[in-house]
Design goal:
Low-confidence stretches: none
Strand order of the largest sheet: 1-2-3-4-6-7-9-8-5
Shape: globular
CATH topology: Aminopeptidase
Oligomer: single chain
Mean pLDDT: 95
Distance between the termini: 23 Å
Number of helices: 7
Length: 195
């Protein structure tokens, strides 16, 4: 399935006074990997898994990047690298994904499924350890504006997982409300959608 059935031009960049977000590239691998490993405890909460393991390698990271770039090329999902405004520091990653296949891995009642079927895409991002609260507030506001102005989606949901209490607090402060909470079919993993 595609996120872009009408084959519209896909935004490749978002430039603000606070950050530059651009399409992921394989050449990002060294700085991406450095941020991943420096933020691995936070990313385990973000992914609600053991990823990235302490033994995660630069080569495994480039494989992940190649996978995301391939999804981007096929319009299945879109991956972006986040840099400081001067592009000197790698700050994290942002992903735009479909909602429907995600639901298959979680328990959801018919009403929740119907609500989520009204969402065109889900947005998730992670920011490296040390990025401050004020930056994330400005980042979230800019991304919400970018999604509504530069993209074709009529309704976007921002995602979070069970341990991401601080990010959910920032969502609420930005005016987002919880639309749905899914529980994994196996285990206690949870995923929340905010609109």
């Amino acid at each position: 399935m595609t996120l872009n059935p009408a084959q519209l031009p896909v935004p490749t960049k978002c430039v603000t006074p606070h950050f530059v977000l651009r399409r992921q590239q394989l050449t990002d691998n060294p700085v991406d990997y450095d941020a991943v490993m420096a933020s691995r405890e936070e990313l385990r909460i973000w992914s609600d898994s053991a990823w990235p393991e302490d033994t995660f390698t630069l080569e495994e990271n480039v494989e992940d990047l190649a996978m995301h770039i391939g999804e981007h090329d096929r319009d299945e999902a879109y991956g972006f690298s986040i840099f400081s405004a001067d592009e000197a520091e790698f700050l994290g990653s942002l992903y735009v994904n479909r909602v429907a296949p995600f639901i298959d891995h979680y328990r959801a009642d018919p009403q929740t499924v119907e609500q989520l079927n009204q969402v065109d895409a889900r947005v998730e991002y992670w920011l490296r350890r040390g990025v401050d609260h004020a930056f994330e507030v400005a980042f979230l506001a800019a991304i919400r504006a970018w999604m509504s102005q530069a993209w074709w989606f009529s309704r976007v949901a921002f995602g979070s997982r069970r341990g991401m209490h601080e990010q959910r607090g920032r969502y609420e402060a930005a005016g987002l409300t919880e639309l749905a909470q899914l529980v994994a079919k196996e285990g206690e993993r949870r995923f929340l959608f905010h609109t």
